[in-house]
Amino acid sequence: MLAVMAEQGxxxxxxxxxxxxxxxxxxxxxxxxAENYVADWVMEQLPGYVGALDRDIRxxxxxxxxxxxAAEAVLRTVLAQKGRAAGISQGAIVAIADDGAVRxxxxxxxxxxxxxxxAVTRGASRAPxxxxxxxxxxWSAAGGRTAW
Length: 148
What we know:
mainly alpha; 6 helices; 2 strands
């Protein structure tokens, strides 16, 4: 492929040689991280706030990156330690501040394996409402869900 790109003038021979000497490494961590669930949720919500997306925009969220990563680690740890015994292979975490701001949203164990967002999708097994809000924790408690 590199040779064809060089022959057609898309890259120089020097760029071809450099690419051959330093081949790309496959990286999957960014594909499997929980922030992808957040990105999907935000993209789903955006049209209701800004209309049709016909240009690039910048979106700021209330997500706390450290809280997000901690929630993801907790979910994976709990599922690894207790999931099999409980017959559970997936889960979700939504962390909501007192003001209703979503601080962390983890829709499953591994985004690369399943993009189905259990945190915000109606129809997921005992799923919370479609949009996290300050009522989600009360719903969880009322719905018979238990914390590990």
